[in-house]
Amino acid sequence: MAQTDMKQKAGAEPAVPRQVERNRMRAVMNNIILHLHPTRVPAPALKFTYTWGLGGLSTLLVVILVATGILLMFRYDASVERAYTSIQYLETQVMFGALLRSVHHWAANLLIVTVFLHMLRVFSTGSYKQGRATNWIVGLLLLLLVISFNFTGYLLPWDQLAYWAITVATSLLGYIPLVGGIINHFLLGGSEVGQVALRNFYAIHVALLPPLILLGMAYHFWRIRKDGDISQPQCQENVEKFTTIPYLVQIELAAAVLLIVGLFLWAMSVPAPLEALANPAHPPNPAKAAWYFLGLQELLLHMHPLAALMLPAILLTALALVPFGEQRSDDIGIYFRSRIGKRVALVAALLGLALPPTLVLLDEFWVDFPTWLPSLPTLISNGLIPLLLTLGGLAVIYGAFRKGLKANRSEATLGLFLFLFISLIVLTLIGISFRGPNMAWVWPF
Ligand code: HEM
To answer: Which residue, of 51, 160, 169, 190, has the fewest CB within 10 Å?
Structure first.
């Protein structure tokens, strides 16, 4: 007894408390994990190819972004005189500074991809139905937050790319009826992107959006537990169950390690871009928006800005209402619903690949409503008419799935969603590769 006391006084750690400490840590970790997951999960939920881990990977990316973002804040200076040089300083004078910025940059871009794919998975498996409508809408809000994060972060390096992409994007805000001008004035503090805009974007990026997204995610996870954990096919009630620890946790850990290693390797080989210092007098030609807005920028080339903004707003609202228009629940947890659903999905994918480029080329080289209908104001000839034609076209596609392919409501809605999803990708690719000086059509090959 006396000997033990002497050892403890001398600073030597007794073996038993260390074991106790380790057990306590493990208990805390298990507790966290079991707050996020049920204690046992059905075999299908363990299949990686059901969720593709996309929700979990998005979560991990948000954590990486918050951690790297906090470190970046120690060096970044949100003033138009010093923002660019503070990034240069970080990249050249701070140990691992370039890597830190690169990881933050690529994680932010990857997050957009994983969140969109996660949404695609949720839609394709009908996991927004039967009590999951609230979480579907929370998910849509998270998507908007992720886009806002990227958008506000884009300006911060204050290089040519940042300055002109944000100038292009904010100039569109003015077209939103009633509130557009107010939002624009609030963000820019005037008519141009300058010091007020930089300070506001920084404040929104580091002070407003992080707590919002963390709260949104916490609610999203809580709802998943409350809605009876992630969806699965209904007929599988007697299915075998496995304990979350270690079976589910080891899959999640493997996916997390792969993501972290892949992200770091990519960030080391492809540095985050930094162009010349922003120069308000010299716009690049073409002045393109950030890649995730190129689909929208493409629409702007074909429609009046008000119509080009209304279209995504209408589609987003429709997307939020989708769960309320569907009663079927027997197809939840089944990719593409059924055999007919798979056929519809294939046709929708092919249509999504073929129709948007055809329409873009037709409009580029032939269709010209303002010239054909000179007596009408452009808001009608180039706004209302293309908008109604697009919405009418979508209704025809939905009707064709219902009548032509004998799809039920759920399958036809999925078809329409896939068509829009692929169309968005195609429009984005057109914006990246087929638009040159003055945003005119160019062939990249
Ligand atoms: C920051 C963005 C997001 C994060 C971190 C996130 C995270 C997660 C996680 C971890 C899950 C568990 C299952 C899985 O991995 O698929 C999940 C499920 C779900 N998410 Fe998200 N999510 C995000 C955005 C979205 C979006 C954009 C939507 C749809 C618009 C959405 C709708 C849902 C729904 C409905 C479920 C339940 C799915 C089921 O029961 O199978 N989430 N989310």
So the answer is: 190
